[in-house]
Amino acid sequence: MKKSTQKRVTLKQVAAHAGVSLTTASMALNGNPSIPEATCQKVFKAIEELGYVYDRGAASLRSSTAGSGAIGIIVTDLVNPFYTELLIGIQQKLNETEQTSLLGTTFDSCEVQDRMISMMLEYRISGLLLFAAPGTSSEVIKRIQRFGIPVVLINRLFPDLPCDYIGVDNVHGGYEATRHLLALGHRRIAFIGGNRQLYTWHGRLQGYQQALNEFGIDFDPELTPESLCNREEASNLIEHLFKLPNPPTAIFSYNDTIAIGAMMALKSRGIVPGKDVAVIGFDEIPEGLSFSPSLSTVTAHPRLQGAKAVELLQSRMSNPSMPIQSIVMPTELLLRESSGEHLK
Amino acid sequence: MKKSTQKRVTLKQVAAHAGVSLTTASMALNGNPSIPEATCQKVFKAIEELGYVYDRGAASLRSSTAGSGAIGIIVTDLVNPFYTELLIGIQQKLNETEQTSLLGTTFDSCEVQDRMISMMLEYRISGLLLFAAPGTSSEVIKRIQRFGIPVVLINRLFPDLPCDYIGVDNVHGGYEATRHLLALGHRRIAFIGGNRQLYTWHGRLQGYQQALNEFGIDFDPELTPESLCNREEASNLIEHLFKLPNPPTAIFSYNDTIAIGAMMALKSRGIVPGKDVAVIGFDEIPEGLSFSPSLSTVTAHPRLQGAKAVELLQSRMSNPSMPIQSIVMPTELLLRESSGEHLK
DNA sequence: AGAATTTACTGAAACGATTCAACGGTTCGT
DNA sequence: ACGAACCGTTGAATCGTTTCAGTAAATTCT
């Protein structure tokens, strides 16, 4: 019942308690080399005894150039496990370096994203990991950069915008997946899900087309239906696709979530993925492994990508004049059950 | 190539540009009713024209009682989709109310958690949603409360600690699941995974025992092996369990992640879950629906729970003297394929 | 030994907002 | 017509920290 919402202990009180000046205390706290060990000890002892906690807001007020030290993370949609995997990688890395993060989820809305960015600017983040919502204008990013805040774009590249970027090799991933299906003997291969608003979609489509070309197969637009990235939409796609007079025998899916939705829809129609129809996804989400049949996929190494994104941001933060980096991570074709065997 | 890391525009400049005093500008910004519409317009026009961004750090410096306005979220382990679901619910709610969040992931380590809490205190969060790591001492929470920061505990209740709490009815959930299995004719029912460090584990076990009692079945400690919450550990559990002279015919799993790991292990041994062995999980993660057989589970409505946790924190923040709340959400038995049919 | 440097520390001015007491001017009540 | 109440506005103090310029004592240099 004690209403002891104690007033915050300030550094001034710490200084008094330690018998030094405010300035000395501040310097001791920041490990300024001109403060001798003994004095530091006194200050830290006082901090301990009084239960002092540092006020980052006040601190970053004076040193106006640096931000609060926190880094912002904006992702579009936690519902897609790929983002969760990415976030896990990011958080693990941040834990290592003991950094704090502001998290925002846009749920694919640009307005929400704008609001989020404004908020983060108000909180004076020191850096931003941005997984841009579809339709994001490059102006939005330029605005952040104008405040001197480093930005790392994840999986979404803006032409003509000087900005660090990390992504995966969508073209090669799409190429490898499609090529594998072609090598298995498939000739009607669909590329399903995702949409042309997505930067990654274009790359994966390009790889798909490249492989088709190599095998001298004509591109059939009917086999590349677009969709949002959820299971329900994927189900509709399958519905539509298997009503065609000449349905596909293999499916390369924009991502794993869609692949799983598609496989569920196939199964409910009595079509066995991995046997009647080959399926390959993209991303590598954990669910792909537990699904029957287990999902063959082009892995983007999402956790590693998250970790690398943090590393990139950190090097940018510690060295603002470093040349712009564009990291394209190699993809890897992960063959499991859903891609099936060679056609007889 | 413009090195135009422009200096931050301050409210003072805005005031000058609008032809009013700093005080007036501040009040206009905060919607103080004593500022007439016309003046507000002038100020907002100036804000627009100068590209002013509010500095929350500076603002929260003066009004020392309130924090920065951001709320902290600490979860243990994003790898378990349950937490992701919870986080989705939290983020959706926060988006509605346009609040910013600091996210920390402890990966089940108390030291990391301590560090995270300290950080969040330094950033002066206005409230904390805490999914406490196993082994967390109640002292840690008391410390936060001493700073006058509202805390909402999720799924982990500390006896004798006056603190808001939201969780699910573990006992009833465990009871219903077990009872259902008993009603199907099962008599060897295992309760697998989780461990006694977890508050929720005890509740679920209690419900399990209660149901067994009701059917006059002796509790067999061999049927309640503990484990960490991941698929590999679940697999080991199955390995061990099905080496017993008298293996179980039904499994009630501490959570869905373990249930899925267990079912994968069963399948790889040629045992068909939903037919040879009944399985029921707890939580309701999306993966449970795509798995074959689809996972019967006790849903904790994770997204709703996340949303409600935010609501609870918000009411506490707006009304600090409100009596302590303990919200226990009802569970619901979600019957799908894995629980099977009545034994012949 | 006297000057120059170093060492250990400090006072005071920032940083960008909030907030309180106070201002002159209009309107109201009686 | 006089004081009270109100309105729109403002100057100045304040929050907790950093940082610059400066000081007095101790050490080094020549």
Notes on the protein architecture:
The structure is a homodimer of 344-residue chains. Chain A is α/β, with parallel strands linked by helices. Chain A is built from 13 helices and eleven strands. Chain A has a six-stranded parallel beta sheet, with helices on both faces. In chain A, strands 6-7-8-9-11 form a five-stranded mixed beta sheet, sandwiched between helices. In chain A, helix 1 crosses helix 2, helix 1 crosses helix 3 and helix 2 (22-29) packs across helix 3 (37-50). The longest helix of chain A has 17 residues, at 302-318. At the A-B interface, helix 4, helix 5, strand 2, helix 6 and helix 11 of A face helix 4, helix 5, strand 2, helix 6 and helix 11 of B. The structure holds a DNA duplex (30 and 30 nucleotides).
Which quaternary structure do these chains form?
Answer: homodimer
Give the second-level CATH assignment, the architecture of the largest domain in chain A. Answer: 3-Layer(aba) Sandwich
Largest interface, C-beta closer than 8 angstroms, per-chain residues:
A-B, 56 and 56 residues
Helices and strands of chain A, in order, run as HHHHEHEHEHEEHEHHEHEHEHEE
Number of domains of chain A: 3
- Tally of strands of chain A: 11
Q: Which outline of chain A best applies? A: elongated
Q: How helical, in percent, are the residues of chain A? A: 40-55%
Percent of sequence in beta strands of chain A: 5-15%
SSE-based structural type of chain A: alpha/beta
Question: Taking Cα atoms only, what radius of gyration of chain A do you get, to the nearest Å?
Answer: 26 Å
CATH level 4 superfamily of the largest domain in chain A: Response regulator
Count of helical regions of chain A: 13
Q: Overall mean pLDDT score of chain A?
A: 94
Biggest beta sheet attributes of chain A = 6 strands, parallel
Which strand order do you get reading across the main beta sheet of chain A?
2-1-3-4-5-10
In the predicted model, the low-confidence regions of chain A spanning at least 5 consecutive residues are: none
Can you tell me the CATH class of the largest domain in chain A? Alpha Beta
CATH topology of the largest domain in chain A: Rossmann fold
How far the N terminus sits from the C terminus of chain A, by CA atoms, comes to: 78 Å
